[in-house]
Write a structure and sequence with these properties.
3 domains; OB fold (Dihydrolipoamide Acetyltransferase, E2P); 18 strands; inorganic pyrophosphatase (n-terminal core); five-stranded mixed β-sheet; five-stranded parallel β-sheet; Single-stranded-DNA-specific exonuclease RecJ
Length: about 575
């Protein structure tokens, strides 16, 4: 593949990849037939949207995209048992994972039950003491005091723990990769069961819970009764979908679009408090869900009390919401400090092994289990390789991994567990967790590297920068940005567009904040545009632009809207540059 504009090695060391002749042709045809702006058509063409479906794609309808819940195995059984428990005023417990998806899933059920005049017991395991998923003591204790236990965002591989829940029915609503056999639950609703078609494999657990509530509503109506308004709950589904890095395609995209609209109404105290403590002065976007709100909800499960995030999302008490949000914000700051230390040590270790191996991994004594997943993400982004980071404690270590596109990490981790090299492990394509004995660590990582290499992970070069096309400063308007945003939300599986402003002259460049670079550039013809490069001041990119000496550059990044002092203007979020 030829480098776009001839840039094979940019100032950040990346090759630029353009849209290709076929996408350019389709974008041109779409622009002519629809009258939509050419940059928007370039993005739609790159996302694979057919010319005839461009207009409906810009207004995704949940009604049209929502799958039939009954297309998932065990769904009718799960919803039927749930409704029987509700109508019979049975004792219900919710066992949830400690991340955003688990907390949102639990909050959906708690909110729905509250509106029906019922309460449920919430149980979220401690990450350090109990680890991920149901465990035998907790399930036995819950079963002794409840009639129905609903496991959300976990449970599909927990055979022994589910068997320990004697005396209670167990329903599992999950999305993690299933094994060859299922645990002894009354129902296992999971689009990633091995006997599923895979058509809904992109759903997060909260989306599976939402579909169960859709089916529950259908069964209630058949009995002449009505349930709560489900559309008002899509804010939680949106948060979970983005924070769990589920691909933003099909119904997921509709969930997030509709959920963001609901979030803008500021009706859920937990999300309002979260927005306020994060100092959001605009309605949340998909970016805010993934990088501002999600990390704060996660902070409780990472280094604090595991149930803080779920309690925040479920509460209807404004004072409690504020208190929980402030605590989570504080924990998130502590998490960042812990993460920085582990990241530095893990990077040094990974560099010593070589950053171009099929697997980048590191393991250290006492590394906090709550941050190893984030550090694995950082290593993956830096190296464009699957990454595993493990915290060792005594005779074993607990770790998390993150993968790159086209490499199924979850399946490889599961294979390692089946081969006996791991104590346990599971996950999905892009993320996985594992527990490994100290004396099998090296052998397990060597075998995992071999499995990932077979999938091509060792052949990946430095991450390419993929670009949608060329744009000129005069064309980058607020109106264009708003039109392009209609093709979103952007995120996993649907990356947002990047454009190149070619042969630009830099008017000024200055440092802002601790390490950011602010600049203004133009082509001398169509106007000027402001740009911000976050954290770039001390980097080769920042230094080259600061000392430009009148040289001209190709500038690449994403265009957005800057709101300041009541004014809105287009702005480039600069990610890369190359001498023109």
């Amino acid at each position: 593949m030829d480098a776009y504009l001839g840039i094979a090695h940019s100032l950040t060391g990346r090759r630029w990849i353009g849209p290709g002749a076929e996408i350019e042709r389709r974008a041109e045809a779409m622009a002519q037939s629809t009258g939509l702006p050419r940059p928007l058509c370039q993005t739609l063409a790159r996302l694979g949207v057919p010319e005839t479906e461009a207009e409906p794609y810009l207004e995704p309808s949940l009604r049209d995209l929502l799958p039939d819940p009954r297309s998932l195995r065990d769904m009718e059984t799960a919803a039927g048992r749930f409704i029987a428990a509700v109508r019979g005023h049975e004792r219900i417990a919710i066992f949830a994972d400690y991340d955003v998806d688990g907390g949102s899933s639990a909050a959906l059920l708690i909110d729905w039950l509250r509106q029906m005049g019922l309460a449920a017991t919430l149980y979220i395991p401690d990450r350090i003491d109990e680890g991920y998923g149901p465990n035998e003591p907790a399930m036995a204790e819950l079963a002794a005091a409840h009639d129905l236990i609903i496991c959300v965002d976990c449970g599909t591989l927990s055979h022994d723990a589910i068997a320990a829940a004697r005396g209670a029915d167990v329903v599992i609503l999950d999305h993690h990769l299933g094994g060859e056999t299922l645990p002894p639950a009354l129902a296992v609703v999971n689009p990633n069961r091995q006997d599923e078609t895979g058509d809904l494999a992109h759903l997060c657990a909260a989306a599976v819970v939402f579909l169960m509530l859709v089916e529950a509503g259908r069964q209630l109506r058949a009995l002449g009764e009505t349930g709560p308004d489900l559309l008002a709950m899509l804010d939680l589904v949106a948060l979970a979908t983005v924070a769990d890095v589920a691909p933003l395609k099909g119904v997921n995209r509709a969930f997030v679009r509709q959920g963001l609209r609901i979030m803008a109404h500021r009706d859920r105290p937990g999300l309002v408090a979260l927005s306020d403590v994060a100092r959001l002065d605009t309605a949340p976007s998909a970016y805010h869900l993934g990088f501002v709100m999600g990390p704060r909800v996660n902070a409780g499960g990472r280094i604090g009390k595991a149930d803080l995030g779920a309690r925040l999302l479920a509460t209807r008490d404004i004072s409690e919401a504020r208190s929980l949000a402030e605590r989570l914000d504080q924990l998130n700051s502590e998490r960042r400090d812990i993460e920085a230390g582990v990241r530095a040590a893990a990077l040094a270790q990974a560099e010593a092994r070589g950053l171009d191996a099929p697997l980048v991994w590191a393991a250290g004594e006492g590394w906090h289990p709550g941050v190893v997943g984030i550090v694995a993400s950082r290593l993956k982004e830096l190296t464009n390789r699957p990454a595993i980071v493990i915290g060792m404690d005594g005779d074993e270590g607990k770790g998390s991994g993150r993968s790159i596109s086209g490499v199924d990490l979850g399946a490889s981790i599961q294979r390692l567990a089946a081969e006996g090299l791991l104590i346990k492990g599971g996950g999905h394509r892009m993320a996985a967790g594992l527990t490994v004995a100290r004396d099998r660590l090296e052998a397990a990582m060597e075998r995992l590297s071999e499995l990932l290499d077979r999938q091509g992970s060792g052949a990946a070069g430095p991450a390419d920068l993929r670009l949608d096309g060329v744009l000129m400063p005069g064309a980058a308007t607020v109106e264009l940005v708003e039109r392009i945003e209609a093709a979103g939300p952007f995120g996993a599986g649907a990356p947002g567009p990047r454009y190149v402003f070619p042969d630009m002259q830099i008017g000024f460049a200055k440092r802002v904040g601790d390490a950011h670079l602010k600049l203004r550039f133009g082509d001398g013809l169509s106007g000027q545009l402001d740009a911000i490069a976050f954290g770039a001041f001390d980097s080769p990119l920042g230094q080259a632009l600061m000392s430009h000496g009148g040289a001209r550059f190709h500038l690449a990044g994403r265009i957005g809207i800057n709101e300041w002092g009541g004014r809105r203007s287009a702005q480039l979020q600069l990610e890369d540059a190359a001498p023109a």
